[in-house]
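Key result, reporting period 2: structure in, sequence out.
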């Protein structure tokens, strides 16, 4: 948790973020549950981190397909968020519908409070849920959905900051600082794309024949390790696993040898040294180590065999930058293997039938 600060008069300061949602969603809020699939599920895990660490609200993230058949016990004053970029994924819609129905008719504090996060407010989700946060990413063609993933993350930052303001779990100046840093990210992403694309393409050529990858991250970047692995699977058809770096020693370490590259997300902050030491354990098993690290980080340069450098930002904001080189890497490996990066086999952009 970050510092807890109330303003001098004990009043809730006016929120610098106006999401346009109804205040009734947030009254006496005690729990948040998030339902999603695939990439949207990974964005939701970053959302959980933000909602818990910035706003102090216990948050659960469930695969929509699991929630449908084993819903969590009902809790009071609970906000249910459905996250789907297309607004058409059948499992996510069905899970939300089920949640709405099982709460209707119960006492006031158990009444459904539904919020949707989507790139398509005109979708089925938009018709089903009256409170929508739109990601404004534009049309998403690729299955390697970088744009929509990043904008889903931005929506979660805004929601967590709005709630942190309402609950006074962060000071107004800290909220302003985070917003100012968020505003700098588009320029930093452009810089990253301009400077790193060629380098990542060259690196990708070395992995065209690789059969297995491991992605490691911790804390707020653990979901980014999952997303890096998912993208590689989806568009390159390479087996990849994402793990919280501290779990590597409890099983996946058995897989490691010179043929299995390990990509570690090592951004300075609370878990930085831990990730570097987990990466070193992999190196001791001859794994080729690739680090997503800040530009000009000497300690990281000494640890990793190859670098995917990103501009330096505080750890809290680092997922938005860290995911970019991972998705470019997956893209270039797929292109090198001669695959259709926009329409991978067996996958649809939105899954409407099971
Ligand atoms: C499909 C796609 C995935 C996507 C998932 C959720 O399975 O292949 O890439 O992450 O649906 O999509 P949604 O539109 O609900 O975010």
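The corresponding designed sequence is given below.
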């Amino acid at each position: 948790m970050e510092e807890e600060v109330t303003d001098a008069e004990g009043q809730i300061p006016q929120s610098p973020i106006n999401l346009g949602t109804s205040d009734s969603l947030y009254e006496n809020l005690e729990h948040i549950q998030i339902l999603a699939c695939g990439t949207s599920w990974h964005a939701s895990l970053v959302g959980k981190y933000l909602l818990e660490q910035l706003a102090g609200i216990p948050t659960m993230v469930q695969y929509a397909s699991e929630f449908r058949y084993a819903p969590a016990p009902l809790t009071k004053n609970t906000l249910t968020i459905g996250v789907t970029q297309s607004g058409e994924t059948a499992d996510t819609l069905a899970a939300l519908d089920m949640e709405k129905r099982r709460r209707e008719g119960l006492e006031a504090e158990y009444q459904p409070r539904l919020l949707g996060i989507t790139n398509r407010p005109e979708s089925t989700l938009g018709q089903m849920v009256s409170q929508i946060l739109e990601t404004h990413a534009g049309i998403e063609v690729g299955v390697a959905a970088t744009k929509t993933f990043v904008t889903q993350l931005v929506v979660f930052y805004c929601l967590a900051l709005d709630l942190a303001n309402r609950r006074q779990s962060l000071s107004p100046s800290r909220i302003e600082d985070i917003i100012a840093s968020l505003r700098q990210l588009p320029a930093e992403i452009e810089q990253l794309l301009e400077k790193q694309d060629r380098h990542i393409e060259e690196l990708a050529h070395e992995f065209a024949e690789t059969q297995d990858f491991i992605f490691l991250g911790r804390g707020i970047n653990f979901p980014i390790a999952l997303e890096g692995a998912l993208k590689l699977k989806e568009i390159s058809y390479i087996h990849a696993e994402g793990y919280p770096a501290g779990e590597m020693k409890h099983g996946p370490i058995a897989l490691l040898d010179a043929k299995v590259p390990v990509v570690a997300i090592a951004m300075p902050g609370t878990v930085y040294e831990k990730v570097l030491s987990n990466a070193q354990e992999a190196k001791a098993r001859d794994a080729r180590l690739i680090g997503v690290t800040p530009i000009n980080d000497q300690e990281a340069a000494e640890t990793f065999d190859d670098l995917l450098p990103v501009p330096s930002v505080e750890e809290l904001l680092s997922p938005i930058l860290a995911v970019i080189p991972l998705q470019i890497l997956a893209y270039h490996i797929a292109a090198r293997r001669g695959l259709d990066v926009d329409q991978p086999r067996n996958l649809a952009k939105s899954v409407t039938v099971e």
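Confidence is low (pLDDT under 50) at residues 1-7. DSSP finds ten helices and ten strands in the chain. This case is discussed further under Risks and Mitigation.
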